[in-house]
Design brief:
Layout lengths: L4 E2 L23 E2 L5 H19 L13 H18 L7 H18 L12 H4 L5
Antiparallel strand pairs: 1-2
Helix pairs in contact: 1-2, 1-3, 2-3
Length: about 130
């Protein structure tokens, strides 16, 4: 495996073990040079979306007491910056990513005891005000 490789199926069973120390199945490894930019961007966006949804306790069966708004704000803002910066390169992935981002921004507003002013919510510095 080259230092610029990516394995989407690699699992980290021990939080203290560095990925480089794990055995790698070469059949599941792709060199980063072979992965299209849009795939890297969309995978990153999906990871940010999933994490933000978890922090907002949007997953089925999630405990409403597990909401972490500061963490969700950071993830949604990072997602907004990524999506807006990559809009021209996203092709058919553009609309689903924008819709997912908007849904998270609205969910954040609903989860907040004191919602931000329009334009002040997470990521709105990149997307503009989000209205429900």
């Amino acid at each position: 495996m080259s230092p610029n490789s990516y394995s989407p199926d690699q699992s980290d069973s021990d939080d203290n073990v560095h990925v480089a120390n794990q055995p790698v199945d070469d059949d599941n490894v792709r060199d980063l040079i072979d992965i299209p930019a849009v795939e890297v961007i969309t995978r990153s966006a999906v990871m940010l979306m999933s994490s933000a949804a978890e922090k907002l306790a949007l997953a089925e069966g999630a405990d409403p007491d597990s909401v972490d708004l500061p963490e969700a704000r950071a993830l949604i803002s990072a997602l907004a910056g990524l999506v807006v910066a990559a809009l021209g390169d996203l092709g058919m992935h553009r609309k689903p990513l924008q819709d997912g981002l908007r849904a998270l921004q609205l969910a954040f507003r609903e989860a907040s005891a004191y919602p931000d002013e329009p334009g002040e919510g997470p990521g709105e510095q990149f997307t503009g005000p989000v209205k429900g």
